[in-house]
Inverse folding.
């Protein structure tokens, strides 16, 4: 029994890790800057393709762990740079949320088109990091070590972010200018809002790029994967609560495990189950399981 | 010393502050007037929250008009808004820390807040949204003074506070004045202003109409206020 | 379905009449100058690209090939109009409209997913009356309920029953002593159909084999996690696993199954679409299908006809796709060319769309991978083949030990329903 | 056209120039099938049928400032009712039965869904719309025995009116009639006290509730109005293509109505009409002009339009360009003027 439960948890790990990163990427911008920005899904796509392309070009079959970490870091940097650029050149001119939603989703369409022009729509894959890490056996369940590695990276990053937000000077400034802070007062207290916004977008870019990079060896980089990433992230933000790190982790586990259980026990519901959970959450706890009430 | 010269502020076509000049130097000056007379706007303009149309704001002879909002504290302007505006999810200590860090980063010396607001020490680790109105006002003041700014702007300092709290806060203001700060306040009630202000400036439709000690203004203005029609509008084009 | 015998008669009669007509009017045959316009309505965006990776590029390659190596159609170069259907049935209808009414194409190739094919087929038959070659759209509904008596609609690609027979045969050949089997497919209509017919046909040959697990994973979800299915599959310990995941699903399935050791633990794995993507995707010794006589052999090295086509795809797309979009398109172009030339040879006149449509039925051509015929409005490969994947020293994955199931084993004869045909299968082995 | 005589009676006389423009456009639309090929007519018909659901989005946005992603539920509902009754389990293809029936179904479903969805606002409302849409989608997708799963239902008969089989031309006029009728109806609703009240409550729900306005009831009614529009379109779209698939229920489909509404321009009453033609017609044409690059072209163009003109949309651009032509016509229909 316990082993079966554990199996569901282990099965859900890859989804859990990438949803943690992606949903926090989305909710971080929403929370700190009060902006709906869907560009993160495009960054996810870029991260995935960058990892696969760099992996194939630089390493081929001679996989080295350090090299892979280096490629992931590059994907993160690329993601951060692109999201910041998107904000500077484009998103900051948008006035209302519905326009941000429409305009950034149009950018997603454009980024998908770009991917098609550059890589074509045949999926590409670079699975050496995933396959070379081997498997371990936990209570009779086989789990690829890469899944544990992914989860560790995601959780460590979340812990680091949590430390940054709650324990450091700059984190305090972020929280002061967040949605339940008061932006003008934060500025009147000497917080440079522009720097905070840019840093927020950069961090969100790192998270989204990393999510794509980490998931690419498992599922390949595929044209159109941004839509799915977008939905799962948005739903997890609803379930977990905007701006909450604990909520992002909790929601990712809920979504991941629910899907893993549904896949075996009730395949009919596998795709619908995150939506059902989100709907129920919205009805019972409108601000998410771990979220704070804030007017939006 | 804070000097305001020919300041004009408008919201779209609506002119809120018209050609106002005043100086504050080591004293507590209180702007009074009816609702909508432009006193809050004047403070916000000095704090940098609203942009100005024309005029100069001189802090010890240096024009601060072009400084962005987040540089004003560093330049020496502390602002306490009307409705407190605390960072509600953060503790009191963190609320004050934000400004303290800003001050340190700017190389300003940090003021000992407890000296002026000894009450504050009791709820340092509580979340600020759980405090009472008076306590929140204290935090808001602490946040403004921790960076030891030369000029302090208090908007509706005593609004909605119990009598005991009023006195505590007035003591704090007087303590600040003793430190040599320039204090500019806005208060809708002359009675409250007379609790702490050295000088009162009466604003009407964005213009200064009278200036003097609280008692002088009281006697001067009472008759005028009573006669004033309730819905007098600003004539178009008057500036 | 039941009209096939009479249709053959019609074809013969028409051919005879055309011949008579040709004798009468041989002198007036004029081939119009300028290029011949052919339309392609293929999904180039949206989730449907999972069905047809790089469909646009493959269409271009097919047209280039025809123009460069086959001399066009009746000497006229082919001008291709390649439009994006977005995989959406409604857009497909509009795209066909534009191709036929606005651009004036003489024939259309397209519709990869069954839904687009179903939306378009009745309109082609009733309104546009232009020879239309569906690429795949393998639903059994197509020639039973949607267009029960087709004239203009043809299909290139096998239907569920044809491919399932091949698959069952291949499994039995490679693992005669199997006791248990598991099947997995993407969760959409084709996946369900193909799994159902596999189980039905297997029961005819080997009623004792137990199906221990069937699952349908989400289809076309671009970042899928199949770990739950793989774990469950390995728990059930089947002798054979037959998997139909493809496109992005296939990539993720292969990576995850390999990492979790599925290929070592299950004695025989039949990854029908192994090797769909660029990069390392196939597994040594795993069975895979060559849909519609495909490029995986690799054909250009084995001396197959149209040998220059596969290298063109290798160069432009970077892989020899098992799911032979390009092969289908080239096959379609070759059928059209043959039909035009046949009518012209018979009549001496430039053919009308109706004549081309009639001529297509029963036509045999030398396709990219050998001789293939259009029987009952459906094109077949020279036998569908299943082989073992093997990576050569140069890195290219090829298929070995090909099992080719001949046509007579696979075709539903006109006098039988599908179910009746399946019932006979057990008897003819 | 019947619609015109009705508009005559329903619109007050001070809108004369608007009325003339409306009648002119309707006449133009009525004459178009004589001059264009069939596929252009089908495309125009599709644009016409997109207008009502976009109006639903526009309605919810301009009155409540909410983004309504759930229109595809009602499109799908209307379409599948047709698919079952006029296709799979053929009973009737009579428009006079199917239209009221699906209208009723949509009203009931919209009312029930509104109880849950309309309690939320902003970001939460938008996501809840998507979530509920996807639940519907997966139900339809998975009940493959009944709905045909991903293959959908293809054998839908052509519609009849009073028992008479409609020609394609005739069906075009039915679509035009219903589309124009719904536009006029929306105009009336947008200028009714009901809309004014909705506008009044959009600022602060709790305040409005505390002074006794049945806030949730009214918001639910707004949702029903939007849903009913989409349901009628769904019926006609199913007949137009003789095909219904689960993509009718997909959230991307619902999101397209939002995009079209925004591109059309939410400051103008004609915004949804312009949006429908710009989004469906232009997108189709662009995707055939640049089959490989259309995603980039469309994506960047839409993003730039939204950035540069914002709420004015394409209508705003067109108005500036054609300012002289329409001088005095006062097309502008501000339904709100506040900032965020």
């Amino acid at each position: 029994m316990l082993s079966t439960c554990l199996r569901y948890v282990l099965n859900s790990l890859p989804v859990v890790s990438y949803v943690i990163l992606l949903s926090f990427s989305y909710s971080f911008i929403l929370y700190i800057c009060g902006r709906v920005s869907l560009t993160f899904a495009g960054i996810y796509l870029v991260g995935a393709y960058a990892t696969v392309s760099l992996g194939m070009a630089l390493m081929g079959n001679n996989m080295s762990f350090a090299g892979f970490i280096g490629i992931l870091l590059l994907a993160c940097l690329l993601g951060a740079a692109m999201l910041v650029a998107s904000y500077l050149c484009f998103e900051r001119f948008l006035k209302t949320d519905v326009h941000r939603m429409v305009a950034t989703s149009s950018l997603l369409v454009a980024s998908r088109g770009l991917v098609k022009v550059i890589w074509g729509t045949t999926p590409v894959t670079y699975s050496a990091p995933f396959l070379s890490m081997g498997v371990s056996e936990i209570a009779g369940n086989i789990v690829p070590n890469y899944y544990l590695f992914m989860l560790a990276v995601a959780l460590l990053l979340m812990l680091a972010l949590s430390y940054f937000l709650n324990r450091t000077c700059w984190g305090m400034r972020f929280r002061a200018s967040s949605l339940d802070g008061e932006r003008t007062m934060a500025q009147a207290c000497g917080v440079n809002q522009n720097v905070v916004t840019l840093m927020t977008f950069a961090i969100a870019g790192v998270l989204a790029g990393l999510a794509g990079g980490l998931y690419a060896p498992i599922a390949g980089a595929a044209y159109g994967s941004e839509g799915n990433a977008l939905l799962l992230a948005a739903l997890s933000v609803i379930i977990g609560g905007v701006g909450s790190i604990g909520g992002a982790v909790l929601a990712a586990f809920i979504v991941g495990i629910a899907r893993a259980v549904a896949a075996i026990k009730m395949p009919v519901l596998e795709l619908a189950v995150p939506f059902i959970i989100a709907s129920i959450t919205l009805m019972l706890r409108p601000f998410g399981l771990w979220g704070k009430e804030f007017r939006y | 010393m804070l000097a305001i010269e020919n300041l004009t502020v408008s919201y779209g076509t609506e002119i809120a502050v018209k050609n106002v000049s005043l100086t504050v130097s080591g004293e507590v000056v209180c702007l009074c007037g009816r609702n909508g007379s432009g006193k809050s706007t004047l403070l916000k303009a000095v704090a940098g929250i609203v942009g100005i149309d024309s005029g100069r704001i001189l802090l010890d002879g240096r024009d601060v008009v072009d400084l962005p909002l987040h540089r004003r504290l560093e330049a020496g302007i502390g602002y306490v808004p009307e409705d407190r505006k605390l960072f509600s999810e953060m503790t009191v200590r963190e609320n004050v820390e934000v400004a303290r860090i800003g001050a340190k980063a700017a190389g300003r010396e940090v003021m000992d807040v407890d000296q002026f607001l000894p009450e504050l020490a009791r709820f340092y680790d509580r979340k600020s949204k759980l405090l009472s109105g008076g306590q929140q006002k204290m935090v808001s003041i602490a946040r403004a003074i921790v960076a030891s700014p030369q000029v302090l702007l208090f908007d509706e300092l005593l609004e909605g506070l119990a009598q005991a709290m009023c006195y505590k806060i007035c003591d704090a203001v007087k303590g600040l004045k003793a430190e040599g700060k320039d204090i500019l306040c806005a208060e809708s009630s002359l009675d409250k202003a007379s609790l702490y202000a050295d000088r009162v400036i009466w604003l009407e439709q964005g213009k200064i109409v009278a200036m003097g000690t609280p008692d002088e203004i009281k006697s001067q203005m009472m008759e005028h206020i009573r006669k004033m029609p309730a819905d007098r509008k600003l004539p178009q084009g008057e500036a | 379905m039941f009209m096939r015998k009479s249709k053959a008669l019609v074809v013969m009669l028409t051919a005879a009449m055309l011949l008579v007509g040709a004798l009468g009017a041989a002198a007036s045959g004029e081939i119009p100058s300028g290029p011949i316009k052919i339309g392609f309505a293929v999904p180039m965006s949206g989730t449907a690209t999972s069905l047809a990776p790089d469909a646009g590029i493959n269409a271009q390659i097919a047209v280039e090939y025809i123009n460069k190596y086959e001399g066009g159609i009746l000497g006229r170069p082919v001008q291709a109009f390649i439009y994006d259907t977005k995989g959406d049935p409604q857009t497909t209808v509009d795209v066909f409209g534009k191709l036929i009414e606005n651009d004036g194409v003489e024939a259309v190739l397209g519709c990869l997913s069954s839904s687009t094919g179903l939306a378009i087929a009745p309109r082609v038959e009733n309104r546009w009356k232009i020879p239309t070659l569906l690429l795949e759209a393998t639903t059994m509904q197509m020639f039973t309920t949607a267009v029960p008596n087709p004239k203009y609609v043809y299909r290139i690609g096998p239907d569920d029953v044809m491919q399932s027979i091949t698959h069952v045969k291949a499994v039995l050949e490679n693992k005669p002593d199997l006791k248990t089997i598991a099947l997995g497919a993407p969760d959409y209509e084709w996946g369900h159909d193909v799994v159902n017919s596999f189980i039905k046909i297997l029961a005819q040959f080997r009623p004792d084999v137990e199906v221990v697990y069937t699952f349908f994973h989400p289809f076309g979800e671009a970042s899928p996690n199949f770990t739950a299915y793989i774990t469950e599959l390995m728990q059930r310990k089947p002798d054979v696993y037959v998997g139909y995941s493809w496109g992005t699903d296939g990539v993720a399935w292969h990576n995850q199954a390999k990492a979790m050791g599925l290929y070592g633990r299950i004695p025989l794995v039949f990854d029908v679409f192994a090797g769909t993507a660029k990069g390392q995707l196939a597994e040594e010794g795993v069975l895979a299908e060559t849909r519609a006589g495909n490029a995986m052999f690799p054909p250009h090295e084995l001396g197959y006809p149209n040998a220059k086509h596969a290298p063109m795809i290798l160069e432009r797309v970077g892989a020899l796709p098992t799911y032979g979009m390009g092969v289908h398109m080239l096959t379609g172009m070759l059928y059209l060319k043959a039909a035009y030339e046949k009518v012209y040879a018979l009549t001496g006149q430039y053919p009308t769309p109706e004549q081309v449509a009639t001529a297509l039925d029963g036509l045999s051509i030398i396709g990219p991978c050998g001789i293939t015929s259009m029987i009952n409005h459906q094109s077949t490969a020279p036998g569908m083949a299943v082989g073992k994947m093997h990576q050569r020293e140069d890195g290219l994955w090829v298929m070995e030990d090909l099992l080719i199931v001949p046509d007579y084993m696979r075709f539903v004869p006109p006098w039988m329903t599908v179910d009746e045909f399946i019932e006979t299968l057990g008897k003819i082995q | 056209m019947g619609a015109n005589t009705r508009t005559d009676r329903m619109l007050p006389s001070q809108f004369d120039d608007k009325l003339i423009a409306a009648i002119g456009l309707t006449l133009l639309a009525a004459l178009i099938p004589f001059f264009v090929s069939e596929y252009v007519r089908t495309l125009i018909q599709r644009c016409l049928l997109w207008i009502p659901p976009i109006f639903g989005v526009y309605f919810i946005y301009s009155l409540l400032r909410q983004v309504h992603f759930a229109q595809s539920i009602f499109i799908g509902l209307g379409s599948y009712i047709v698919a079952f009754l006029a296709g799979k389990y053929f009973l009737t293809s009579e428009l006079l039965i199917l239209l009221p029936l699906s209208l009723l179904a949509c009203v009931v479903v919209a009312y029930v869904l509104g109880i849950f969805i309309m309690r939320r606002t902003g970001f939460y409302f938008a996501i809840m719309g998507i979530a509920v849409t996807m639940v519907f989608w997966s139900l339809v997708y998975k009940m493959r025995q009944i709905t045909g799963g991903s293959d959908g239902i293809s054998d839908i008969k052509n519609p009849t009116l009073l028992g008479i089989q409609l020609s394609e031309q005739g069906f075009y006029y039915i679509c035009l009639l219903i589309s124009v009728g719904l536009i006029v109806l929306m105009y009336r609703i947008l200028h009714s006290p009901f809309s004014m009240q909705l506008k009044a409550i959009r600022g602060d729900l709790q305040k409005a509730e505390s002074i006794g306005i049945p806030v949730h009831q009214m918001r639910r009614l707004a949702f029903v109005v939007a849903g009913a529009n989409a349901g009628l379109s769904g019926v006609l779209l199913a007949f137009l293509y003789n095909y219904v698939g689960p993509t009718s229920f997909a959230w991307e489909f619902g999101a397209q109505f939002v995009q079209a509404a925004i591109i059309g321009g939410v400051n103008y009453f004609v915004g949804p009409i312009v949006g429908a033609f710009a989004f469906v017609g232009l997108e189709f044409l662009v995707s055939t002009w640049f089959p490989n690059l259309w995603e980039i072209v469309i994506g960047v163009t839409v993003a730039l339009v939204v950035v540069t003109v914002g709420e004015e949309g394409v209508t705003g651009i067109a108005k500036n360009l054609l300012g002289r032509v329409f001088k005095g016509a006062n097309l502008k229909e501000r339904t709100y003027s506040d900032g965020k």
